[in-house]
Amino acid sequence: MIQLYHVHKRYESGTDALSDVTLRVREGEFVFLTGRSGAGKSTLIRLLLVMERVTEGQVLIGGRNVHVLRDSSVPFLRRNMGVIFQDFRLIPNRTVRENVAIGMEILGIGRKETDRRVEQLLAALGLELRQSAYPKDLSGGEQQRVAIARALVNEPAILLADEPTGNLDPQMSLEIMDLLLEINRRGTTVLVATHDTALIERYGLRTLELEAGRVIHDHPRRDGGAGTAPGAGLGAGAWEIAARAASAAAGADSARTDSARTDSARTDSAGAHSATTPLTATPGGVAAPPTSPSADAPEEGA
Fold it and tell me: How far is it, in rounded angstroms, from Cα 22 to Cα 80?
């Protein structure tokens, strides 16, 4: 599903953000990407989204070298990818419903299908009563769930999350992680960049560790598994289980929000105040070089 082969990323300043990175993430797998600040986690996410281009090497998604795509073709690639950022990146003057629906509007999806998917996601994530609210009126956990809904509305095969729990309290972090795991169990390939070692230790999933732009360790799953069964992303009926996983999070988050509002009211009253060229797996779990790199690359890049 995701394959990097001898990838280098060097900026004009001469800084090497990534150096000789080779890795493979299988379809339907859940993988943590970890390392200290500046290790290269966010750079790797941006390369997968083709927000930046590699200096050397190949990035293959679904067997295609994405960095030979023309800029005009990149949006078509991203239709099969959802992304969640640490700072949520919600549009402040749009409601919850509008923030979730915007991706489908851009793609020209019909109103009926857009309404169906948005309503399904908001209900599953415990946000159906908040759909007319604006981002400033939401708690951190609610904003993150809106960002998750926006990332999933196009039913992507791959979900990329860059520090998705970085701005959340520990309990809400666990609730968001449980939701991402439920999404993964439904077939979506999930890659989560985080420096939260306690979170990684708690779940015991495969972890790629970066240091100074290099992969220094590829830790296998604690249970010895190889990932979930392959899937093509979330379909129309995928949310019954996710809804159960989210219901507890919604209730706890709502209680925290009500409590915060009560505290704020007391303070006020006191006068204060989102070319098929497959690589082969080696015993170490990373990618081996293709025999004839990117056979259809010239066609894509022409």
Answer: 22
